[in-house]
TrEMBL record:
Claim: GTP-binding is one of the keywords in the record: no
GO molecular function: kinase activity
Alphabetical keyword list: Kinase, Transferase
Protein name: Carbohydrate kinase family protein
Family note: Belongs to the carbohydrate kinase PfkB family.
Ranges where the Carbohydrate kinase PfkB domain occurs: 5-318
Any single Gene Ontology cellular-component annotation: cytosol
Organism from which the protein derives: [Clostridium] leptum DSM 753
Listed PROSITE patterns: PFKB_KINASES_2
GO biological process: phosphate-containing compound metabolic process
Gene3D superfamilies, A to Z: 3.40.1190.20
InterPro entries for this protein: Carboh/pur_kinase_PfkB_CS (IPR002173), PfkB_dom (IPR011611), Ribo/fructo_kinase (IPR002139), Ribokinase-like (IPR029056)
Kinase keyword on record: yes
Length: 333
């Protein structure tokens, strides 16, 4: 039986500034201490959360970094996780980085990204025969330029990669980056045809399906099941999951089971940073799928994993082993 999770795609060095209040254009705001240098992106965040949940789980990281100081921060972070195989991370150009601005009042984040080495990561960088895993997860669609390019047969290079992953006996999973653009309905759907697990937030789901999920800040709960069913119609084969601050919504595409798992009511002062919480949620769902848990149990683990991620500056810094995460969920739900 196949075992392990491969996580491919975005590798990022994060620089996090917390400000009193996000400023209007042309206005001034104060940067608070501390200034945080951290790792980010789907590969770092998701792989490290998985490693915290289960230190015995085989994890393979795939992507590209540069040959610079930022890359050294990423390599150093991975050294703390002996169950993450980094042999398929290549080095080319400059490491991708993201400037993250956190509004201290709302805890909302804004991202200014330099794509760097992530732009050139492609299927040629993957040797399918050099790793064995049950699930292949990649993120983020819309931020990996070489894979977002058109493909005459599959629609996009990302869709081609996912099709080849399935041909190699892997279950496939995708995540999408949140951006303000009209590219979603052109670039995301081709990949969903070759996707087993799609785990995205409500804004990404809205832009992908064209179904309104948040209007004027208000969550449109009545449309969630419809959006999940649309994702299934677009090709998602096993689980379609939408997460948002208020709740997680899931559809088992094989049985039609619809699941809602509310977010936890966390104590005042518990939330330190929201950067990486979506990846932590994704990791929880993936771990549940890997362990053949139900969709509902996997979403509960994901909800608690995201909560632990909120408790510290890095996506994985606050995480605990799975048993402790589940215990926390049971105490807080």
């Amino acid at each position: 039986m196949k075992k392990g999770i491969a996580v491919a795609g975005s590798l990022v060095a994060d620089i996090v500034y917390t400000v009193d209040r996000y400023p209007e254009i042309g206005a001034l705001t104060k940067i608070q201490d501390p200034i945080i240098n951290n790792t980010g992106g789907a590969v770092c965040n998701t792989a490290m959360v998985l490693a915290k949940l289960d230190s015995q789980l085989p994890i393979t990281a795939l992507g590209k970094v540069g040959k610079d100081e930022a890359a050294e921060r990423i390599w150093e972070a991975f050294r703390h996780y002996p169950n993450i195989d980094v042999s398929q991370i290549g080095a080319e150009g400059s490491t991708s980085f993201t400037l993250v601005i956190v509004d201290s009042a709302s805890k909302q984040r804004s991202f200014f990204a330099y794509w760097g080495a992530n732009e050139v990561f492609c299927e040629d960088d993957i040797d399918w025969d050099k790793f064995d895993a049950k699930i292949f997860h990649i993120g983020y669609i819309l931020s990996l330029n070489a894979l977002d390019e058109p493909d005459n047969q599959y629609g996009t290079k990302m869709a081609r990669l996912l099709a080849h992953a399935k041909e190699h006996g892997l279950e496939t999973s995708v995540d999408v980056v949140s951006e303000m653009s009209d590219r979603f309905q052109k670039i995301v759907p081709p990949s969903l045809k070759y996707t087993d697990y799609c785990i995205i937030n409500e804004i990404e789901a809205q832009c992908t399906t064209g179904i309104s999920l948040r209007e004027n800040g208000e969550l449109q709960r009545q449309n969630m099941k419809k959006a999940l069913e649309k994702m299934n119609e677009m090709g998602v084969a096993k689980w379609a999951v939408i997460h948002c601050p208020e709740c997680g919504f899931g559809l088992d595409c094989r049985t039609g089971e619809y699941v809602e798992v509310p977010s936890l009511k966390l104590p005042k002062g518990f939330i330190k940073n929201t950067t990486g919480a979506g990846d932590a949620y994704c990791a929880g769902v993936l771990y549940g799928a890997h362990e053949d848990r139900s969709l509902e149990d996997s979403m509960k683990l994901a909800t608690a994993s995201a909560a632990f991620s909120l408790s510290d500056n890095g996506a994985a810094d606050g995480l605990k082993p799975e048993a402790e995460v589940i215990k926390f969920y049971q105490e807080m739900c």
